[in-house]
């Protein structure tokens, strides 16, 4: 039997892999856009983990992951706008 939140864990893993790959490429190339994209992938990883916790009725962990994602998105967006 498949767990109803298995897809969220798979998406979280996929986003973490994208984050790692984009982060390595961004460091090698020195591209600001790739760094921002990698950090957004990290935020989406937190979102998917939070949704999995929400499905398991763990509201505190859900709130933690959503807060982390929102902070990363706001901080990265602010930095990107000010650096361009």
Tell me what the structure shows.
The chain has 84 residues and is mainly α. The chain has one domain (6-83). The chain is 87% helix and 0% strand. The chain is built from three helices and no strands. The chain has helices spanning 6-29, 32-55, 59-83. Helix 2 runs antiparallel to helix 3 (59-83). The termini are far apart. The model has no long low-confidence stretch (mean pLDDT 92).
Please write out the topology:
Elements: H1 6-29, H2 32-55, H3 59-83
Helix pairs in contact: 1-2, 2-3
Transmembrane segments: 7-26, 66-83
Keywords: Membrane, Transmembrane, Transmembrane helix
What can be said about this structure in brief?
Keywords: Membrane, Transmembrane, Transmembrane helix. The protein is 87% helix and 0% strand. By secondary structure, the protein is mainly α.
**How many strands, which pairing sense, and closed or not: the largest β-sheet?**
none
Ends apart, CA distance between termini:
49 Å
Average pLDDT, rounded to a whole number, is 92
Report Rg.
14 Å
SS-derived structural category: mainly alpha
Q: What's the SSE pattern?
A: HHH
Number of helices: 3
Quaternary state of this entry equals: single chain
- Please give the number of β-strands: 0
Share of β-strand residues: under 5%
Low-confidence stretches: none
Q: What is the domain total for the residues?
A: 1
Summarize the amount of helix as a percent range: over 70%
Give the overall form: flat
Transmembrane segments: 7-26, 66-83
Keywords: Membrane, Transmembrane, Transmembrane helix
